[in-house]
Design goal:
The complex is a heterodimer of chains A (258) and B (354).
Chain A lengths: L5 E10 L2 E11 L4 E6 L5 H9 L6 E6 L2 E3 L4 H6 L2 E4 L11 H5 L9 H5 L6 H14 L17 H15 L3 E5 L7 H16 L4 E4 L3 H7 L2 E6 L2 E6 L6 H9 L11
Parallel strand pairs in A: 3-8, 3-9, 6-7, 7-8
Antiparallel strand pairs in A: 1-2, 1-4, 4-5, 9-10
Helix pairs in contact in A: 6-7
Chain B lengths: L28 H11 L3 H18 L6 H26 L7 H17 L5 H24 L5 H20 L6 H7 L9 E4 L2 E4 H19 L1 H11 L1 H6 L4 H27 L10 H11 L11 H20 L5 H22 L4
The chains are: A alpha/beta (258), B mainly alpha (354).
């Protein structure tokens, strides 16, 4: 089998007496969409936060393309090429689309103004943002400098996905991308995810929505009680099987890993 | 069997339904005004400022509407204006600083006492005063950013601590103007006057205006400025999208302290003397200027130039009403009204769809 793009061994994270991750393993292979499902409190969010650098695991190792990495902040993950779209989207509503896309990695002007006065190169950033949004078919954005708060939920999600797709060179993590959206808006975001996949970037998708998971995922990582219960192939199992594994109503008949 | 129920099939065909098209225009006048104000939050205080100048000018004629009187306002608001610059930065990060007045006084006292009690060269004393202001700001910053204490509580505490230290350290002594003039004139440098066609300016006034312009530029055009706004908007989101929240907050509080140090220097220029009992109300006055200037107390919104306009509005009202012979309480009365109106306008602007 090919080498995983992103993998983790024995990840453990405790919050006081609560063990959110209990020696959890994880693998993501090139070009795939891996769904992570699990009941509330199973530790999905902690898992993806550990993978993206937003939390640091107490034990265990994370590897990117076989090389071990240590993340202590979300920025470490980003530098390594892992972009995350958080459920809360992590955007500043009062700032513009461009400002949000470049938050924390702004482009400075060349020459004196940029080097000594640290002036931002707004034109370059706007061009880039416009380019990325239209790459993903996010239509004719007339005013790239309008504040994010003036956008609808689906548009914000679109901008967040475009931000991740623009900068994520290795892995994109999507946490509940359709949870807050209407049916049509979700549909559009799912198409967006497939567009991103076609560019060859592997995606980790966390979702509660079984039809969406079964439609998009190549493999499904079932998370239960802080660890990986099994990885299933959506073509071989039904949604009710997946729910049964996830809630503990049914035990997987094969050993871990699919 | 992967699709037990394909209830979403009806919406699967991709229809160009302008999913993310951004409409603009074609709205009523109120909408246009709303959009304009949303984009330019300093516009409201600017209009209020200009209208109040015109009204007082019509009522008082040349007694008010003269270069001398108008620049007198600038001199009267310079301390509050400089402090309001520091306050604006902190409020933009969704904080508040009650200790700015205390930092201002103690910086001026440090400058004076270092020069007169220890005989340190006056120019070095000024640098020590500025450094001390920065240090006070750093203390606030550490408590807010590292200890995660609410800024209101932190600065409520440091306000008392710094003000008490100020009285204890200075032994409540005032250093008289003549002494400063004779042996340490650099302490009064910010009070240096110059006249252009009857308009009287001081270095302190020029400093206030330049400071505001520089900060306004930096907030708009540097990554640091964008980060200040992002933290005020939503600190967790900013941290997740890669902003170093701790470093940015520290820089804001330390810069705030440094600016208060400069305000302390300007205070000596304005009074001529070093008095440990002056400027202690600058905290409330600066918050007033910031609020009237349209900067949101909830952080992340507003323009720092608004705070300058806010300070000037207060100055125009107090001079105008004094020249009209009104009781000084009327000034406070109208300032109170303005504060409430400003916050109401802020709430309206915040709403995305009016």
């Amino acid at each position: 089998m090919t080498e995983p793009v992103l993998s983790a061994k024995n990840l453990t994270k405790r919050y006081g007496k609560v063990t959110a991750l209990d020696h959890c393993d994880f693998e993501l292979y090139p070009g795939e969409i891996l769904a992570v499902i699990g009941d509330n409190g199973a530790g999905k969010s902690t898992l993806i936060k550990a993978l993206s650098g937003a939390v640091t695991a107490d034990e265990g190792e994370i590897y990117i393309e076989g090389r071990q990495v240590q993340f202590t902040s979300p920025n470490d993950g980003r530098v390594a090429g892992i972009e995350t779209v958080y459920q809360t989207l992590a955007m500043s509503p009062a700032l513009s689309i461009t400002d949000n896309m470049f938050m924390g990695r702004e482009i400075r002007k060349k020459g004196f103004m940029g080097k000594y006065l640290r002036q931002l190169d707004r034109a370059a950033m706007e061009d880039f943002a416009r380019q990325k949004l239209s790459d993903l078919g996010l239509m004719t954005i007339q005013n790239i400098s309008q504040p994010v708060e003036t956008l609808s939920g689906g548009q914000r999600q679109g901008v967040a996905v475009a931000r991740a797709a623009a900068f994520g060179s290795k892995v994109i993590i999507l946490d509940e991308p359709t949870a807050a959206l209407g049916v049509k808006e979700s549909r559009r975001v799912l198409e967006l995810i497939q567009d991103v996949k076609k560019r060859g970037i592997p995606i980790i998708l966390i979702s509660h929505n079984m039809p969406h998971v079964f439609e998009l995922a190549d493999r499904i990582h079932v998370h239960r009680l802080g660890r990986r219960l099994c990885v299933i192939d959506p073509k071989k199992y039904s949604m009710s099987d997946a729910v049964a594994f996830m809630t503990g109503a049914k035990e997987p008949d094969e050993p871990r890993a699919a | 069997m992967s699709h037990d129920d394909s209830y979403e099939d009806v919406v699967k065909t991709r229809r160009e339904e302008s999913f993310a098209a951004f409409e603009s225009g074609g709205k009523g006048l109120l909408h246009k005004v709303h959009d304009l104000l949303h984009g330019n939050p300093a516009l409201v205080p600017l209009i209020v400022l200009l209208v109040s100048i015109v009204v007082f000018g019509l009522l008082l004629g040349s007694r008010f509407f003269s270069p001398f009187a108008l620049t007198l306002i600038l001199q009267q608001v310079q301390i509050v204006g400089i402090v309001a610059a520091a306050q604006s930065l902190i409020i933009l990060t969704a904080g508040i600083d009650l200790s700015v007045g205390a930092i201002t006084v103690i910086s001026s006292v440090v400058m004076g006492q270092f020069a007169f009690r220890y005989g340190i060269p006056p120019s070095i004393s000024v640098i020590c005063g500025l450094a001390f202001g920065t240090l006070c700001g750093a203390l606030n910053g550490l408590l807010v950013s590292k200890m995660k204490l609410p800024p209101f509580i932190v600065t409520l505490g440091t306000w008392q601590i710094i003000l008490a230290s100020n009285y204890l350290y200075s032994r409540n002594e005032t250093i008289r103007s003549q002494e400063i003039e004779a042996s340490a004139p650099i302490l009064q440098f910010m009070g240096t006057r110059f006249e252009i066609f009857g308009a009287v300016f001081t270095i302190g006034v020029v400093f206030m205006i330049l400071l505001m312009l520089c900060l306004a530029w930096a907030l708009k055009n540097t990554a640091w400025g964008r980060h200040v706004y992002a933290i005020g908007d939503d600190a967790d989101a900013a941290a997740l999208s890669g902003v170093n929240v701790h470093r940015t907050l520290m820089s804001v509080y330390m810069l705030g302290g440094l600016i208060c140090g400069f305000a302390g220097w300007a205070l000596i220029g304005r009074l001529g003397s070093v008095s440990p009992t002056s400027a202690y109300e600058a905290n409330i006055e600066s918050i007033t200027a910031v609020v009237i200037g349209g900067i949101s107390l909830f952080g992340g919104r507003g323009s720092i130039l608004g705070a300058l306009f806010g300070a000037l509005i207060v100055g125009v009202f107090s001079l105008g009403l004094r020249l009209l012979g009104a009781d000084a309480q009327w000034t406070y009365f109208f300032i109170g009204v303005l504060i409430i109106v400003a916050v109401a306008v802020d709430q309206w602007i915040r709403k995305v769809s009016a």
